[in-house]
């Protein structure tokens, strides 16, 4: 048997394919992100030392796997706009009132960025996607098992009196139903737009056999999508439900429309996703009215005016990265609110939260790096396939709208931010950046060009 291009990594170390530690890195990162909400303890003064140590160790392992110790310049092989946005976050530490907290938080964000990009580049597109899909379906199985075996803990109960609206919502093995909703949404998008790979047809293969394999693959993916959709419905995570629909729409547009039509339709879908979440938030307030609870969906709308006021007073600098929420008595929110808003840990809007921390210039850089540039690359690429583009576009649109009512933009190891980074790294690979899976095919193409052409 001969190995295909996707089977041979670009580099080897000590006779062992580098994709082994790279895949392990992605699995470890996924596990850490799942455990993140339980591990997080960002209250001053020191945070969770174990969490920081684990991520540091994971970074060192990833650097070894990617050959960074032999070629340190790999740490700078990120998209230029992303590096500029991260650099601005580091600069903002200079004017933070709590510089040590800001430094620790921006360092963790930078570590996550490096881990994701180094691991995805070493894995290549197909292997990275397959690894993430395996992790997602494993988590889905764990969530269903938890609901069946221990419904008292896997389903929000009456004892959680801080928000009676959560009663009956499924959360599985995660501490909060919104986290579970996000993972269910990503499962739906990945299994919808990453179709089964057709086996290579040889002389011994029959058309019926290939068709059966394809049907089985599609059936499995359909079951996973339906199972994830049902669990998402049971979480009652409104943001994830709404943005999953928008992500599916955006991905379908990329899949079905011509390249010229995509240029208009896909950006429109991204903007529409933001509009949908704004309208949903506003209409929810009017519908619920006096029955609203501080921690219910309408609570987000009560938070945003305080953030807007702070941004208007500090439009260029903000408070410094990570120096607005959850830093103790020095938090700026205490100057702008004396209500329950001052007791929460985020503004439930990724754009307002980031602008309050790094100012409007930092927000512009962040949005350009996370959404605008990858959208541009995908929509103008001549090499990205329809299925790959559909998955990445669907993920971007989901995250664009999701940040309208949840905070997950440039926010350390928050679930949505990690998947934004995974999407960015996959976009770099899919639109032509060198990867292990493409090295041999490129060498073959160079050999073909060296031969005389008779076309």
The structural class is mainly alpha
Compute the average pLDDT.
81
Ends apart, CA distance between termini: 31 Å
What fraction, in percent, of the residue positions are helical? 55-70%
Biggest pleated-sheet summary? 2 strands, antiparallel
How many helices in DSSP terms? 16
Detailed description of the structure:
Mean pLDDT is 81; it is low at 1-16, 41-46, 284-298 and 434-455. Helix 5 crosses helix 7 (177-193) and helix 14 (386-402) packs antiparallel against helix 15 (415-430). The protein is globular. The chain has one domain (10-198, 211-435). The protein is built from 16 helices and two strands. With 455 residues, it is an all-alpha fold. The protein has a two-stranded antiparallel sheet with strand order 1-2.
Key features?
mainly alpha, 2 strands, disordered N terminus, 455 residues
């Amino acid at each position: 048997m001969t190995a295909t291009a996707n089977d041979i990594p670009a580099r080897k170390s000590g006779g062992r394919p580098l994709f082994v530690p790279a895949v392990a890195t992605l699995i470890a990162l996924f596990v850490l992100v799942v455990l993140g909400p339980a591990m997080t303890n960002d209250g001053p003064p020191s945070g969770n030392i174990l969490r920081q140590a684990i991520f540091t160790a994971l970074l060192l392992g990833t650097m070894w796997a990617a050959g960074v110790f032999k070629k340190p310049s790999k740490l700078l092989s990120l998209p230029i706009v992303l590096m500029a946005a991260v650099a601005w976050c580091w600069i903002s530490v200079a004017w933070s009132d709590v510089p040590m907290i800001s430094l620790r938080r921006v360092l963790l964000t930078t570590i996550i960025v490096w881990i994701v990009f180094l691991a995805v580049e070493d894995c290549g597109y197909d292997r990275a996607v397959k690894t993430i899909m395996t992790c997602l379906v494993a988590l889905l199985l764990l969530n269903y098992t938890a609901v069946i075996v221990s419904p008292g803990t896997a389903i929000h109960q009456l004892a959680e009196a801080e928000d009676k609206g959560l009663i009956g919502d499924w959360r599985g093995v995660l501490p909060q139903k919104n986290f579970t909703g996000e993972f269910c949404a990503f499962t739906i998008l990945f299994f919808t737009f990453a179709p089964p790979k057709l086996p290579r047809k040889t002389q011994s293969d029959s058309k019926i056999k290939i068709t059966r394999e394809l049907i089985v693959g599609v059936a499995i993916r359909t079951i996973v999508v339906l199972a994830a959709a049902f669990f998402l419905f049971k979480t009652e995570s409104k943001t994830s439900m709404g943005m999953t629909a928008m992500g599916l729409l955006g991905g379908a547009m990329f899949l079905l429309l011509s390249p010229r039509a995509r240029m208009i339709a896909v950006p429109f879908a991204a903007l529409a996703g933001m509009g949908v979440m704004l309208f949903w938030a506003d209409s929810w307030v009017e519908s619920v009215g006096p029955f609203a609870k501080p921690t219910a969906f309408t609570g987000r709308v009560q938070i945003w005016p305080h953030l807007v006021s702070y941004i208007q007073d500090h439009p260029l600098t903000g408070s410094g990265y990570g120096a607005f929420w959850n830093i103790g008595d020095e938090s700026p929110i205490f100057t702008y609110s004396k209500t329950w808003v001052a007791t929460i840990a985020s503004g439930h809007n990724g754009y307002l939260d980031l602008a309050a921390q790094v100012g409007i210039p930092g927000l512009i850089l962040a949005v350009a790096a996370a959404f605008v540039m990858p959208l541009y690359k995908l929509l103008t690429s001549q090499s990205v396939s329809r299925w790959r583009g559909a998955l990445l576009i669907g993920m971007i649109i989901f995250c664009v709208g999701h940040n309208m009512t949840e905070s997950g933009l440039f926010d350390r190891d928050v679930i949505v931010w990690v998947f934004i980074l995974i999407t960015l790294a996959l976009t770099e690979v899919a639109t032509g950046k060198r990867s292990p899976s493409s090295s041999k095919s490129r060498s073959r193409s160079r050999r073909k060009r060296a031969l005389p052409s008779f076309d």
